[in-house]
Amino acid sequence: MASPKKRLQGLVAATITPMTEHGEINFSVIGQYVDYLVEEQGVKNIFVNGTTGEGLSLSISERRQVAEEWVTKGRNKLDQVVIHVGALSLKESQELAKHAAEIGADGIAVIAPFFLKPWNKDVLIDFLKEVAAAAPAQPFYYYHIPALTGVEIRAEELLDGIQEKIPSFQGLKFSDTNLLDFGQCVDQNRQRQLAFLFGVDEQLLSALVMGATGAVGRPTQINHPTQTSVGKELSLPRSPFLLTGVLYSEIYQLCGQTRFWSVPDQSHHDSGIWDSNGPTPASTAESLQGVY
């Protein structure tokens, strides 16, 4: 994999965590998944154990194993493997950050804690600083996704002065529909060479116009037959940007199952099926509902 000093940009695949029909992680698929991304899609950067990868639905042991498998199988094939290490527990997040560094990941990302939420910028930065300190040589990214965390601290506000407190800070994954906030992040930090990775697929074209340096999401894993100016701008052989709702069946056929349960009308998640006894596992076909 590339030197950690290389700027993370372009397309970054938010990887699914493949499961067996019994709800165990299907590690045997990950090598094929790497080859599919690299050889079929021309995508060589990945974001592991994030929202799409159901990282917060996995145990700490599972998250470590998944990270190890992606790093191992991606060696000499992928450019950058970024591991999401966010957790409600600071100690667990630090443990995952340290582990990511030990296995040779190219960067770590952290979501805001969302049970006992930080109430202002300083409290959030203090949390992020403690996690980053567990792996000080790792490029560090903040994963901004307020729709799921409920932490409404603007990303633009957070970026002000953050590198003074977190020297390893390299940018953020911005998964919010507030384009004003995103635009201010870019405009006020142009000289800092940060990565501005956009994570809302439906608004990606707008974000690129505003200065996004890359995209993290699911459509990066689908080959679009037409070479567009967007793909050329990001220096990729193919353009993978499709409308939301496209079913990337090849990936799901490869991975087989997912673990996440959700109410069907929550269109921003994979959908499970609910009955009087609660949720049941989301099969491949069912998981294709409401792709975000």
List keywords for this structure.
alpha/beta, 8-stranded parallel β-barrel, 34% helix, single chain, 292 residues
Written description of the protein model:
- The protein is an alpha/beta fold and 292 residues long.
- The chain has 12 helices and 10 strands.
- The strands form 2 sheets. An 8-stranded parallel β-barrel has the order 1-2-3-4-5-6-7-8, surrounded by 5 helices. The protein has a two-stranded antiparallel sheet with strand order 9-10.
- Strand 9 and strand 10 (278-280) form a beta hairpin.
- The protein is globular, with a radius of gyration of 18 Å.
The low-confidence parts are: 224-249, 261-292
- Number of separate helices: 12
| Overall 3D shape | globular
| Structural Rg | 18 Å
Order of helices and strands: EHEHEHEHEHHHEHEHEHHEEH
Structural class: alpha/beta
Quote the beta fraction.
15-25%
Helix content: 25-40%
Tell me how many strands there are: 10
Largest sheet: 8 strands, parallel, barrel
**Roughly what is the average pLDDT, rounded to an integer?**
80
How far is the N terminus from the C terminus? 28 Å
Strand order of the largest sheet: 1-2-3-4-5-6-7-8
Short description:
This protein has 292 residues and is an alpha/beta fold. 34% of the residues lie in helices and 15% in strands. α9 (204-210) links the parallel β7 (195-198) and β8.
